[in-house]
Please model this.
Amino acid sequence: MIPDTTRTTDAPDVSGVPAVLRVQDLVVTYGRHRAVDGVGFAVAPGESYAVVGESGCGKTTLARTVLGLLRPAAGEVALEGVRLDQARGRDLRALRRRVQIVFQNPFAALNPRMTVARLVDEPLRLAQPGLTAAGRAEAVSALLASVGLADRFLGRRPHELSGGQCQRVAIARALAMDPVLLVLDEPTSALDVSVQAQVLNLLADLRQRRGLAYLLISHDLGVVRHLADRIGVMSAGRLVEEGPAQEVLSAPAADYTRALIAAVPGRGRAALVGGAGAATASGPGAPGSTGSSQ
Ligand SMILES: Nc1ncnc2c1ncn2[C@@H]1O[C@H](COP(=O)(O)OP(=O)(O)OP(=O)(O)O)[C@@H](O)[C@H]1O
Model:
């Protein structure tokens, strides 16, 4: 349950729907450097919102603040209407569980000594402390199945898995916490090109099936085009443009966005500006197939 001691007074919404995440006038500093400088946006339930921009523009800092790992110098971060930036102690921990992250490098994110079964069981114990061992085992199998991994993977350790399989385990761990929002931090950029599209399709499929909202952090506009409904373009800590993904990519308003798109090599750029819903520029493979390792 989300604590309601710090609810925002004004109703946060996106087109009339209460927001899962609302960020307002956010400032995050490292010493005197404003890494995030007055950013505001909202993400609706089930929506996928991408923050794009060059290295150093503040994407990771923004993501870490949304995860409750950094405290803003000013502004608000609200999750389902509850102020994350004001929460402390148990309230903060309860809020943090509602937002999970999938990191760029799945090998680094998984404890190499744990089996797949234990890796998925661990967050489940936290999320559902009342479950029996048998109930948890069943839930672990179901979570793995939902990311396309069969029971034969239960006893394996990360070094016995491919990068794509590791990323599927990392996604299953995130889902075990029953989040409302997944932060996807360059979720495919460490993977072989051959499995990137499968993981992207899995993420698109999971969003649809579970009604999850995504905050996608990426510099890869091909990935963004595949997964995002809306895009916020960030430069030097500020949002310089925001809009529906297809509009931003095909008719960018800001010079900075135009330069980002112009930097994508030829064929990828043509795919980007051609409309939403096609294969990614960076990841070939069959759109619509989530692949699996059954
Ligand atoms: N711990 C830190 N201490 C001081 N400055 C930092 C720290 N982390 C990031 N910065 C600076 O803040 C700015 C934003 O960094 P951030 O990592 O958020 O950008 P980014 O867009 O995520 O970049 P990348 O895509 O390379 O990860 C950069 O100028 C960076 O050098």
Summary: Residues 30, 33, 35, 53, 55-61, 219 surround adenosine-5'-triphosphate (CB under 6 Å). DSSP finds eleven helices and twelve strands in the chain.
